[in-house]
Amino acid sequence: MRFPTTISAAAFLLSALAAVPAAAADRTLTVYTYDAFTSDWGPGPAIKKAFEAECGCTLEYVALDSSIGVLSRLRLEGENNRADIVLGLDLNILAEAKASGLFAAHGIVPQGLALPLAWSDETFLPFDYGYFAFVYDTEALANPPASLRELVEAPDDLKIILEDPRSSTPGLGLLLWVRAVYGEDAPEAWAKLARKTVTTTKGWSEAYGLFLEGEAPMVLSYTTSPAYHMIAEGEERYQAAAFAEGHYMQVEVAAMTRSSDEPELARQFLRFMLSPGFQEVIPTAQWMYPAVDLPGGLPDAYGRLVDPAKPLLFPAEEVAAERKAWVEEWLKAVSR
Amino acid sequence: MSLPWWLPAGGALALVTGVVGGALLALALAAPGLDLADNLGDAYLWRVVWFTLLQATLSTLLSVALAIPVARALARRRFPGRGLLLRLFSLSLVIPVIVAIFGIVAVHGRTGWVNDSLALLGLGRIHYLYGLSGILIGHAFFNMPFVARILLQALETVPPETWRVASQFGLKSRDLFRLIEWPALRTVLPGVAGLVFMLCFTSFAVVLTLGGGPKATTLEVAVYQALRFDFDLGRAVTLALVQLLLCGAIVLAVLQLAVPSTTPLTEGRLYDRPDRGGAVGLTVDGAALVLTLFLVVLPLVAVALAGFNPRAFEVLGRGALWRAVGQSLTIAVSAGTLALLLGAALLVSSRRLRHRLGRPAAAGRLELSASLILVVPPFVLATGLFVLLRHVADVFALGMPLVILVNALMALPFVVRFLGGPMMEEAQRHDRLCQSLGIAGWQRLRLIEWPGLRRAVALALAVAATLSLGDLGVIALFGSQDFATLPLLLYQAMAGFRMAEAAVIATLLSLLCLALFLVIEGGLGGLGRRSDA
Prior knowledge:
By secondary structure, chain A is of the alpha/beta class. Chain A has 14 helices and twelve strands. Chain B is mainly alpha-helical. Chain B starts with 6 loop residues before the first helix and ends in an 8-residue tail after the last helix.
């Protein structure tokens, strides 16, 4: 997750320009990821700096417009892609990504993972996790729904902003969330949600931007989103609504490509990804939970967030088998 | 020594059909287990088809229905600002779609001028922009002025004597419309309605930005989503074929309705219509012009004003912005030039068919073939070519040439439209002379054609390059932080709702379009009286 703070944009640009010649080593690691990760207010710049100091190489981001867009781009380029690392896919599209045959096994035994689930994937490694939630504006909405069912059944004048499950991982997360709660009745729930939806955006940043502009009092985001407002802005106005059925979980992952011409460097990056140098940036720039326990613990604000008593998660195989059908079902329900 | 007549057009058409066919084939082959029948049985696809037809039909009807009273008002009234309004109307053809959308959002959005005024008056804000209504507003913005201009031209061909006779008979406004104006409009309506329908049917940026979600999806947007989101090549091919057949058939059918125009174009603008007085006429004309103000003028004003905001300095200081300016200009000039060469090649052959071989119908079909490229989704072209070429070329180097090629193809119909008339006229004037004097080839081009066609060539190139400069199309598929055009940056800023930043880019892009247009039109076309197209 990532937030716009415009203050340091120009300053960052200057420092980035100045940094280029200094780091002009002959080895380059190319990372495909989504744009919010590399933006000035995202974790990308700090991570680039830390890794370049460690590897004596150049880290180059190729920023694309959404996380699922990263995978589409990679499949479009096929074997001729230039990526060494693909970063920012999530658990729910993992099986499909693997089926593309474009990724290589990492060969790393991850140490000290602190995820709420066991991790044994040979291709992908997690770098953060979080829980989807509806974030609301306390000044526009005094009594938010206390469950997904309450939201679905709420009067249609409760307006929400959603992300498209075909392009964005939060959108896909909600698709699975609704499915987990409603099962076969999901299409009816979607038809009701559609009537409350102001707009369905391509990615998370568009949706959150519209929400902050006041286009709707509720937006699909994460339980950790309020931490940004608390820490970066000292603002308690935006809160996540706790839902009784539990919150659907997201694990963001990265992997190295099969066609990488720097496999050793790529492996070094994946190891670095699980080290404090990378992980410490996550809570206050990506606004997600880190994948390992941090030596200094989490910022205090994280203690005041909604704690999802019951994480929801479909088995990866089931998502892989059903995703396409569920997306079709959603399309039909919301375009009625 | 002279080339066979069919060679230039043959070459151009071979390139165009080769690109289209090759791209479709490459995608179809790359799609694992493509099952057309299965894809065609999909209920969602037919819902998309239905919505595409619905919005294109409504957009066309709305544009034409508004354009008729506006053209009438402009034909029978003289008022201060009329000339400026006509100039703004021609601007709507070359203004970047995404810039115009910015203006539309600034006026009609939830925090736009209309809603701000309502709030000031103590009335609630209303959402009316996103969804079908937004698409209709967007399409009317672009097409109503375009239609109105052509209709106005048609009305101005009515000879002054007709109006004199009409007033002697004491005809009422309604009769004037039925007996005089409608027959004049009737000659141009099918052609212009067909073109507007085609543009709305295949519209991308308007639907993507103002459609507001999966409910408002057209075939063109669905193709983009199939490629960008699902990477479902089979579905993209199916959607493209449906669009090609459906839209092509409809446009050809509409063109059958065309009535050949018999009235020669005259400059007879000074006439006295008997229906200038009268409260009803005055009210109708006033209403039409006020509507035009809201629909067309205010968004343009919003664009012009918006760029001057406190963020301007900071946004203009960004390296990425200026890199995008350079890349946009490279694409625009290259695509414009390629479109011009292809268009000229087609026209050289069609001219020969028309004048020396006496086959005007075949010549007409040849020229029409260029317009049909508009029904091919550019994303399918670009992706197909990418899949075809990714094994032989660097995938990062491919983006730019593909954007240039596809933009050039999309600008081809406009080149043919702007260059066609002057080239035919030129042949009418000099063909026999050249033949009898034996002037041909390079000598003819240099001595005869260039001086006569210079202005038309410059105008065609200017339009093609400006359209390409403002295009938000296949760049949406290939863009990354290293390869971006100004329209893409603008789209991203708007999508992220960074409106102050978007405003600066919108103003910069408009100025750049205007400058490029004027530089090409004036520089290449030579100084002197500018054509008023």
